[in-house]
Design brief:
Length: 554
């Protein structure tokens, strides 16, 4: 499966703008609202905006569009800053906030009123909806639309002073109530919100809407290419109307690209919040969540996420992207870079009857089969070992390439052994296998010419360590869990998390640093949990299996 970077129409646009002299420097921005955690869709937007700035030697600003204090918090600001840095991007200058520009935005609102381009409206929310019209019917002018400039200036100043209750008045642009574009039907510029703001405290009781603030913020910052997702295409005429009707210091232009919609995933903040609130997942950074912090904790790497964003390209159309492409990117990255280790998830004891009980042999294995610079690791070898239950059968057909009574198997990076007998419990379950080693088979085939049937992983029962291993998988078992009338909660994958408490690992793995990645031989790619893992109580999360098991089910 080969993938190269896909097309990006915005690169063509920017190259032409630079060549024609329309712009001399590229300035983009990433403007999240701090009302939740970033998800994979935001990662795409980050890669587009920061990537364009990098590609053309320009600048990308990080700006929080914090115009809705009721839903915003410092917690979300901190998480967004951390996510952007973790993805490997750095913004130009200081972190910016829409709230920094509140006074300037208000001054420009006054300008619109003075020009006769804005008015204070007393319609309540229900009345405003009635006057707005529908997609097929024009709206009607507000009865307050013809207020004088003097009256509007007075009312706006009194709104700012806190004289009116929430919902009692709004400031609206005077554009066209018959416009076929609903966004141009006298949109709201300011509404009254008597709540404290996380940056400005109680300085303001009126707050600008996103539509009013966004373009002017871009202009203040000298943004040349304001790149957003396709749902804002219908907002572009409004964006341009404000720019053309105000004395702004620059003329930014808006461009839209198709948003990222991965299969087997939801990206609605409201629905993600529901998963958190009802305990379906363990917080916003649960490794099954499509949040950047969740993917990080799962073991996805910044390099893999950025490669995925490059693979899918940047186009002018929305569409569903197969999440298998993201999984391919992480497999490829970890296959190339993750050290190897051995972990036994379902331990079955093997006793090597010919091996000295007091002997502990230190075997050596490469940390990576094709990366000698990653060094070697020591594998303590002892009389008693653990292998996986699934790697042993008393009897089996020829297709079973693991340990069978009377047959041989190679222990990875160690001896060839042959199974002799078993010990069973009262229920007839095999609890112990007795076997013997074949001499001089470390790195060599048996001298008698009888080769082993396969290779299995193992861990010393004497020197190995126990660990908790969390086997994560896709959160949903439906490719489009919230499409149409579907209730996404009905498509939760019951196998999205299986926790193994008593797994056995190589002793060196206990010393892994949080967020260190490994390939557990024959099991998949894993990461030491960034919060829960310690040397005394190791915890590993499965990032992804060695191969795509979902394509077989499709």
């Amino acid at each position: 499966m080969e993938h190269s970077p896909a097309s990006n129409f915005l690169e063509t646009v920017i190259a032409e703008d630079l060549a024609s002299g329309k712009v001399s420097e590229v300035v983009t921005r990433f403007p999240p609202e701090p009302n939740g955690y970033l998800h994979i869709g935001h990662a795409k937007a980050i890669s587009v905006n920061f990537g364009l700035a990098e590609r053309f030697g320009g600048r990308c600003n990080l700006r929080f569009d914090d115009t809705n204090p009721e839903k915003e918090s410092q917690e979300f600001i901190d998480s967004i800053l951390e996510d952007v840095r973790w993805l490997g991007y750095d913004w130009a200058g200081e972190v910016r906030f829409a709230s920094t520009y509140f006074q300037q935005l208000y001054d420009w609102a006054v300008v619109l009123v003075e020009q006769g381009d804005a008015y204070v409206c007393d319609l309540n929310a229900e009345q405003a909806r009635e006057y707005r019209g529908t997609l097929t019917e024009p709206g009607r002018n507000s009865p307050f639309r013809e207020r004088s400039v003097e009256e509007n200036l007075d009312l706006l100043a009194r709104m700012k002073a806190g004289e009116f209750a929430e919902g009692e008045k709004v400031l609206r642009a005077r554009i066209d109530m018959a416009s076929p574009n609903m966004n141009m039907r006298d949109p709201i510029l300011y509404r009254i919100r008597k709540v404290a703001h996380h940056q400005t405290g109680t300085d303001w009781v009126i707050y600008p809407t996103y539509d009013f603030a966004h373009g002017q913020e871009d202009a203040i910052e000298g943004v040349t290419h304001s790149v957003c997702t396709l749902e804002f295409e219908d907002h572009r005429p409004l964006y341009d109307w404000f720019i053309s009707h105000l004395p702004v210091p620059a003329t930014p232009r808006q461009f839209e690209f198709g948003r990222l919609n991965p299969s087997y995933t939801i990206t609605s903040k409201r629905k993600l919040k529901q998963l958190v609130d009802d305990g379906t997942v363990n917080g916003w950074d649960d490794p099954r969540m499509p949040t950047v912090s969740g993917m990080r904790r799962r073991g996805f790497t910044p390099a893999a996420i950025r490669k995925f964003c490059d693979m899918i390209g940047t186009t002018r159309s929305d569409g569903v992207v197969d999440v298998a492409m993201l999984e391919f990117a992480i497999r490829e990255d970890l296959n190339d870079n993750a050290p190897r280790g051995m972990c036994v998830l379902n331990p079955l004891k093997v006793v090597l009857t010919d091996y000295p009980a007091d002997q502990l042999e230190q075997l050596v294995a490469p940390s990576h089969p094709s990366r000698p610079e990653l060094g070697e690791r020591q594998l303590p070898f002892s009389r008693e070992l653990f292998i996986d239950e699934d790697d042993f059968r008393e009897e089996a057909n020829k297709k079973f390439k693991r340990l069978v009574l009377g047959k041989r198997v190679r222990l990875r990076n160690a001896y060839v052994i042959e199974a002799d007998s078993v010990v069973k419990d009262e229920q007839g379950r095999v609890v112990e296998v007795h076997a013997h080693t074949i001499p001089d088979t470390i790195g060599n085939d048996p001298a008698d010419g009888i080769k082993p049937k396969g290779v299995i992983q193992w861990v010393s029962a004497t020197a190995g360590r126990q660990a908790t291993v969390r086997l994560y998988d896709r959160l949903f078992n439906d490719p489009a869990p919230d499409k149409g009338d579907k209730n996404f909660m009905e498509h939760i994958n019951p196998e999205s998390l299986r926790e193994v408490i008593g797994a056995w690992i190589e002793p060196s793995l206990a010393a892994a640093l949080p967020e260190q990645h490994f390939q557990f031989e024959r099991e998949g790619y894993f990461v030491a949990d960034r919060f829960d893992h310690t040397g005394e109580a190791p915890v590993f999360n499965r990032t992804i299996g060695l191969r795509d098991s979902w394509s077989d089910q499709a």
